[in-house]
Amino acid sequence: MELRHKPLGGLHQPPGHCSGGHLDQPRLHKYAAAIWFLGQRRRVYDRLIALSGARKGDTVLDVGCGTGYLTQRAAHAVGPRGRVVGVDPAAPAIAYARSVSPPNCDFHVAGGEAIPEPDASFDVVVSSLAIHHIPPQERPVALGEMYRVLGPGGRLLIADFRPPRNRAVNRLIGALSGPAMQHNPIDQLAGLVTDAGFEVSGSGDRWPWLRYIQAQRSSGASGISQR
Ligand SMILES: C[S@@+](CC[C@H](N)C(=O)[O-])C[C@H]1O[C@@H](n2cnc3c(N)ncnc32)[C@H](O)[C@@H]1O
Question: How far is the CA of 91 from the centre of ligand 1 (A)?
Fold first, then answer.
């Protein structure tokens, strides 16, 4: 089945490439995400934040933050003494995220390939459903940036789309969203993380069709936050 206009395809252009586009319609994305997660998005994202190891008072970076949903869940976890920064190249998504996020959140219009933050300035980096939007040749650069901005011992949690193993469901995903999701090379993610210098500490699958990787920047000096 091949639909001419793919309902979830606006984010995943250009067609034929296994990378995606930018989130230019934040309100539409909000409703699409609510449907995609069957109303369970908060529970799923809170679990991702728990897996990231973010604690009260931490500084957290959310790469490819879109409308800032994961950013807000991270802000909840780190509390008012913590700080969360979201980066995304889509200006409309960042404007929306700013308008709905608590005061301990800050945002930049920027891609993961060039994060406008100093070296070693975060305790935790998180990213959800964004890596497959970064052009394949830029993914190592983005992982390198995540490594650069994490302090020694800093923690990384990346969750991205895992194409369904069921062939019929996989083809349906392709028809609805295009090849970036249908053929997302999720099995390469751990290698990308390792190549950037991280030590992978865990991985797993989460409903709905998410694969996460937990990793750490090797520790040397003390962490960022004063605990
Ligand atoms: C499916 S949305 C996920 C948004 C958010 N993380 C979430 O879980 O709701 C993918 C996001 O990746 C962003 N994106 C596209 N290219 C990017 C890049 N080079 N670096 C970082 N994010 C990018 C898009 O603008 C979009 O907001």
Answer: 11
Q: Is the CB of 9 under 6 A from ligand 1?
A: no
pTM recorded for the entire structure: 0.90
CA dihedral 147, 14, 161, 25 (to 10 degrees): 90
Tell how far the Cα of 222 is from the centroid of ligand 1, in angstroms. Answer: 31
Percent helix / strand / coil, the chain, rounded to 5: 40, 20, 40
* Model confidence pLDDT, tens digit, residues 142-156: 999 999 999 999 999
CA distance 159 to 215: 12
What is the tens place of the pLDDT at every residue in 52-61? Answer: 999 999 999 9
User: Encoding tokens for residue 40?
Assistant: 């369970």
Domains along the sequence of the chain with CATH: 14-216 (3.40.50.150)
